[in-house]
Amino acid sequence: MKKELTEKQERVLEFIKKFHTNNAMMPTVREIAKNFELSIGSVQQHLRALLSKGFLIKRGSLSRGIDFPNRKTFAQVPVLGTVHAGTFLEQIEDASDYIYINTDVTRNKKCFALKVKGDSMEPSGIVEGDTIVVSKGELPSNGDIVVALVDNESAVKMFYKEKGKIFLKSTNPKYPTLSSDDYKIDIVGKLIYLVRQYKN
Amino acid sequence: MKKELTEKQERVLEFIKKFHTNNAMMPTVREIAKNFELSIGSVQQHLRALLSKGFLIKRGSLSRGIDFPNRKTFAQVPVLGTVHAGTFLEQIEDASDYIYINTDVTRNKKCFALKVKGDSMEPSGIVEGDTIVVSKGELPSNGDIVVALVDNESAVKMFYKEKGKIFLKSTNPKYPTLSSDDYKIDIVGKLIYLVRQYKN
DNA sequence: TATTATAATATACATTTGTATTTTAGTCAA
DNA sequence: TTGACTAAAATACAAATGTATATTATAATA
User: Fold this and answer.
1) Does B91 score more than 50 pLDDT?
2) How far is CA A170 from CA A167, B7, B86, in A?
């Protein structure tokens, strides 16, 4: 049911988006006017139209106080190291980098991210090079994918609990299922998000 | 070589980060002052310290003109619809939602996102429900994953070109390889990014 | 025809905002 | 003790910014 924009209004909205992308803040009325070589009043009218049509909202009479109706906010999540999805190798280390995740995903949970190595989770869509986001300490349900410490080495596995025993399964059948009978298993957290950047 | 911050300076910087996360813009001097119940001049001094120590930078004498030295910026990428990764079904439609991607990934390319259905790309880590980001019109190399129109229906496939012929391969062997001999194939764009949100 | 929406200009004004200046005070090290 | 740094306040001012108003013009429409 969104009302249509005129060509000019669309171009103004596009500029605002681009400006916001490049500068991480909204442009002022005059910054928009300067870009299009328009008068202040003209831009005001375009903004009024964009507001009334629901493409922008306002937050009081602040400077740069326009906003997108459903702009998302981001949480800074530290990338703590590498985790092996096959034979569980490397240890969690210090934060080296950060990724930014929508706060409606992280939901105030304590999160961290890891780079994935190995192929044990390939059938469930986790491949080498992926960055996974882990919700620290969250209790998993059967079938959830978790990061666990198996005899103090980190691994990405599918979680199952049966009669008080914990089983960690690789979705790749060439790796065995680990049981809490044979290993000391500590659940670090549950997978909530995954990002993959393709080579460019 | 980063100089250390005093406790108060650290708290001011934390507030600025938090404010920026919640509001997608930097606070004004007076907004900071109000938060800490401080005078304007006092906040000015803290900002001056944060600037000279390299934790903040300035962009001219603009309102909300402070910035983080290495802040990442995000591009708003429209989610245009659903694409079938098996038997290519649904058509690209209007923008319904947006996701936000680091600009060092999108790099000023024209991008859009699609929700994935089907299992034809499972062995390369693309599963149903994933959101893929496509760089529109970018020429793929052999082995790249692309979104293509095959007889005007959209599909996610692995791209190969040999002797002028285009081949679209599903990494799942139960789907056949498509050739430009048998189908009208238009490359829409190349996969540059993928995000997956696990059920919560 | 009158009306409405769009587009644009020009100007004025009030508020917000960044910045400069001055003053006071405590701590720490040379 | 002196100097440097930090912390804080109070005030003033110039620049940036949002907002209001009046005016003109065009195109589409009821």
Assistant:
1) no
2) 10, 46, 25
Residue B193 pLDDT = 97
Contact call for B24 and A71, based on CB within 8 A: yes
Signed CA dihedral, A177, A179, A182, A184: sign only: positive
Are B124 and A119 within 8 A, CB to CB?
A: no
Distances in Å between the Cα of A81 and the Cα atoms of A58, A74, A129 are 41, 21, 12
The single-letter DSSP state of residue B103 is H
Which of B25, B71, B65 is closest to B47 using CA atoms? B65
State how far the alpha carbon of A96 is from the alpha carbons of A78, A84, A135, A163, in Å.
Answer: 7, 18, 18, 40
Helix, strand, coil share (%) of chain A residues, nearest 5: 20, 35, 40
pTM of the model: 0.77
Cα(B66)–Cα(B58) distance, integer angstroms: 5
Q: State whether B73 and A196 contact (CB < 8 Å).
A: no
Q: Which one-letter amino acid corresponds to residue A128?
A: E
- Alpha helices by DSSP H, listed for B29-164, are 29-36, 40-52, 103-106
Nearest-angstrom CA–CA distance, B147 and B156? 5
Partners of residue B195 in chain A, C-beta under 8 Å: 193-196
